[in-house]
Amino acid sequence: MTSNNEPLQYKIIKSIQKIISEGLIKSSSRIPNLPKNSKFYEQFKNTSKDKLGYAIFNNFRIRRGIPEGLRLTSLGNEILKRNFEHWEFSHDINPTPKMYLFLDQKMEWPYYFTKKKLVLFCKEDAAWYKLNGNDIHTFIDKI
């Protein structure tokens, strides 16, 4: 596959691998001059892209040689939030399996969804969510 046809999951994983290998994880430590990219991220430097995919994406799977699933794990969410533009929304909805399934089928960009928050990494998705009153049910119906 050429890089243009490369699945989004692998593009994200390559970007994360580059950020980690170059020591560019942005620090969010509350202690000044203490880098957050220390030993914890070292474990991912030589990890295969598929194994890293399982650490980054909650619903990562390979089907017919192509990765699927864009729902982020808490680790994936934290790494992407430190390095990419994102929009975070608080809510108090208990996600149902049907919601997860629908988002898994429809979302084209990474997202993080728990019972406390929704984090979107696509400006258009964030705009649709806001336009629909920050209501996950309406958002799911519209996408």
Determine the structural class based on helices, strands and strand pairing.
alpha+beta
* Tally of separate domains: 2
Mean pLDDT: 85
Distance between the terminal alpha carbons, to the nearest Å? Answer: 29 Å
Low-confidence stretches: none
| Count of beta strands | 5
Strand content: 5-15%
Give the SSE order as H and E letters: HHHEEHEHEEHH
Written overview of the protein:
- This protein is an alpha+beta fold and 143 residues long.
- It has 2 domains: 73 residues, no CATH class; 59 residues, no CATH class.
- 43% of the residues lie in helices and 12% in strands.
- The strands form 2 sheets. Strands 3-5-4 form a 3-stranded antiparallel beta sheet.
- α1 crosses α3.
- The protein is globular, with a radius of gyration of 16 Å.
- It starts with 7 loop residues before the first helix and ends with a helix.
Index terms:
7 helices; alpha+beta; three-stranded antiparallel beta sheet; 143 residues; 12% strand; two-stranded antiparallel sheet; 2 domains; globular
